[in-house]
Amino acid sequence: MPPICQICDGAVEEFLDLGRQPLSDAFLTEQDLAGEFFYRLAVGVCRSCTMVQLVEQVPRDLMFHEDYPYYSSGSSVMREHFETTARALLARCADEPDPFVVEIGSNDGVLLKTVKAAGVRHLGFEPSGKVAAAAAEHGVRVLTDFFDAESAAAVQHNDGPADVIFAANTICHIPYMRSILEGVDRLLAADGIFVFEDPYFGDIVAKTSFDQIYDEHFFFFTARSVQAMVAGFGLELVDVERLPVHGGEVRYTIARAGARPPSDAVGALIEAERAQGLADLVTLRRFAADTARVRADLQALLRRLREEGQQVVGYGATAKSATVTNFCGIDSDLVSFVCDTTPAKQGRLTPGTHIPVRPAEAFADPYPPYALLFAWNHADEIMAKEQGFRESGGRWIQYVPEVHVS
Fold first, then answer.
1. Can you say whether residue 119 is alpha, beta or left, with left for phi > 0 and alpha for psi between -120 and 50 degrees?
2. Methyltransferase putative zinc binding domain spans which residues (predicted)?
3. Is 282-405 a domain of CATH 3.30.1360.200?
4. Is the CATH number of domain 72-279 3.90.980.10?
5. What's the burial of 322, exposed, middle or buried (CB within 10 Å: 0-12/13-18/19+)?
6. Is the pLDDT reported for residue 69 higher than 90?
7. What is each CA distance from 15 to 2, 4, 43, 130, 283, in whole angstroms?
8. Does residue 174 contact residue 235 with C-beta atoms inside 8 Å?
9. 72-279 and 282-405 share one fold
10. Domain segments of the chain: what residues?
11. Whole-structure pTM over 0.90, yes or no?
12. Which among 74, 252, 383, 401 has most CB atoms closer than 10 A?
């Protein structure tokens, strides 16, 4: 019996199996190895509403918890992105007498700090305790809880309706989408907007960026599937915007049905998705074949470099690197260690493959001949920062959209 769609209860047809995978952000000590959690990472498409989604769910409390190690403020590019986004959201509710902005998955408050500085009422939902505490230290009002129908109703009762509900790289994480949209329906003002941005499935297919698929990313959105997803809750997709961040995202703007006319961009993107064949099994199986080709090419390159006695170091202990290392069988025999700036990851081992994670300073002590760039979505920022590596003769290994050395 095929899996059931978490949006519409339709049949989900599997098209990609990335094998046995660990929790992508569970960086381990030696003592943690015996109890490491694994699951099968597979992706399917709903034959009714076209939503692309994982076949298996990982319990949310295993992924988003007190020690969750991702901080949005860690990248200067993302800090600038969220400051710009916050100003745009504030402009869209500037005519309200007492605007109220709510963020789902507010992380360390990188966006809401700008909202607070503008003197606007705000609230962030952030279930991961330490990053929520980081936001609170900056004076951001944050609720350490998951957003759902019940918690949204409580906020509406206490604070009134929200003029803007925003989420970045969060909505795609949440399998219980019906409760999320019920919460949006309860909390959103009559003329308010729900805006969220997440990795775009069209870019994932076009770039063969299969590492965007991991436990925390449950849904992979298109304009067509988002349109179908919100329609059952009295909501309507009224605008879309392509974004360059995180390897390609789309910002979706949702309003109450009939409250705002949809922009021409919505129809244009849906038509482009039809042309790309994003809901067609032929396209999806070709994507799976391309993913297998990248794995074979990356394995061959790393094994050749090992045989030649060349050291390869990983750059960026990202969540998505767990997919690559485990799917491709990359362990410390092929990549000696991974450098990362996040203190919570340093001195630990990568999920599943147990490669040591070292501080960023280890990258230049001394520079290795090759670096495997796991944080490829920040390539421009990283390469500008690491010019000394290039000057030392070092070469970058990348695998999106294909394996190449530069």
1. left
2. 5-64
3. no
4. no
5. buried
6. no
7. 12, 14, 6, 37, 10
8. no
9. yes
10. 72-279, 282-405
11. yes
12. 252
